[in-house]
Design goal:
The protein has 368 residues and is an alpha/beta fold. 54% of the residues lie in helices and 8% in strands. It contains 18 helices and five strands. It is globular, with a radius of gyration of 22 Å. 35% of the residues are buried.
């Protein structure tokens, strides 16, 4: 174990011990320190009184630590033999990812996309099912999809599904997403390999192609605001699509989508998220996952302290990643998303405080 890992472990254990010691003195059942707001209390009751689901669905948002989470999930799968269950992961590929109404092989409707994904999830659960302890974590860049409908071939009732989501502060996410698309995306890498990178840049940014012109555009607010990619992918509120099923994305007004997204963050019922968190507080998110899903995530937070996992997807281009024009563009794109991020940040913090103070009241029983 490295010195940094040992220091991290010591600090983690000291923090946990202090929290438990404080709780021992304040958890009297009458003091204000033990009182929970109504939403947090409802979340605790939901987690504690419902069984751990067969499927944990993570419809991951791009540039919000999803590659890091994939590797954390894979590590949990690899260590699951220590526990009394069988854990599987399915990282869906781009053929399942949502671009409204689009599919790499064919044009399909939103409902057809949901059926396609649901069918494959059920099949994967069916093939992996070996006993009552079997769990599946499925992830991908898709809108919120109802995966709970349908029966397995053995006639068991509809699959129990609960959802998780990790977000990130909007402005760095927007910058990272833009630079990733221009430099490191699958399309950009393909264009570089085939000698069509100038054309790729021209199409994405709406300018004569070339890295010189790209750098100029990234320093010019008007050019940034007029980019085709800005209109198609990086518009204000685009992230709401991940919190609303595909039909809702099309049918509801913008304000309704924001309201619906907020509700799914605040309540795990009726298709809401059982656990939400932010990348800036990753270990808090992992501790909430352990609280809600001990069969799948027990030990994840400690493992991340001992051996932190960082994304191997390096979208680092310091020469064009920070300037006044890009900062202004990102800020203007984040008006709506920042409201949602603040809600996620607040909700996660309240739940984390509650589960630290009252694990017996808020968390599912840990695996022995």
């Amino acid at each position: 174990m490295s010195a940094l890992s040992l220091v991290g472990l010591v600090l983690y254990m000291v923090s946990w011990s202090n929290t438990m010691a404080t709780n021992a003195h304040t958890d009297t059942g009458t003091g204000t320190e033990t009182e929970l707001d109504a939403e947090t209390s409802a979340w605790c009751n939901y987690i504690r009184t419902t069984p751990e689901p067969t499927v944990i669905a993570y419809n991951r948002i791009g540039k919000c630590g999803s590659s890091t989470m994939e590797r954390i999930i894979d590590r949990q799968v690899n260590t699951s033999r220590q526990y009394e269950h069988d854990l599987h992961a399915w990282h869906t590929d781009s053929s399942f990812w949502t671009q409204p109404g689009k599919h790499p092989q064919q044009q399909i409707t939103s409902k057809q996309h949901q059926e396609l994904l649901r069918e494959h999830v059920l099949r994967t659960v069916d093939e992996a099912k070996q006993g009552p302890g079997t769990r599946l974590i499925v992830d991908g860049h898709w809108n919120l999809v109802d995966l709970a409908s349908g029966h397995l071939r053995d006639g068991s009732p509809p699959t129990a599904v609960q959802y998780i989501q990790l977000s990130r502060s909007c402005e760095p996410r927007i910058k990272s997403h833009l630079l990733y698309h221009l430099h490191d995306s699958v399309a950009a890498q393909h264009a570089k390999r085939t000698g069509h990178y100038r054309n790729f840049i021209g199409t994405a940014m709406g300018i004569p192609g070339g890295t010189v012109q790209m750098k100029r555009c990234l320093s010019n607010y008007s050019c940034l605001a007029d980019m085709p990619i800005a209109r198609e992918v990086l518009y204000d509120g685009a992230v709401l699509d991940y919190f609303c099923d595909a039909d809702c994305v099309r049918a509801h007004r913008f304000e309704s989508r924001l309201t619906g997204a907020m509700q799914r963050v605040r309540s795990p019922k009726d298709g809401g998220y059982a656990v939400v968190g932010v990348l800036e507080e990753l270990n808090q998110f992992l501790e909430l996952l352990e609280c809600a899903f001990p069969g799948a995530f027990q030990g994840a937070a400690m493992a991340n302290v001992l051996t932190p996992i960082h994304s191997n997807n390096s979208t680092v281009h310091s020469s064009d990643g920070s300037n006044a024009a890009l900062d202004r563009f990102a800020h203007g794109t984040c008006i709506t998303e920042s409201h949602l991020y603040d809600q996620i940040l607040t909700t996660a913090a309240r739940r984390h405080k509650a589960m630290k103070a009252h694990p017996e009241r808020c968390c599912r029983p840990r695996i022995a």
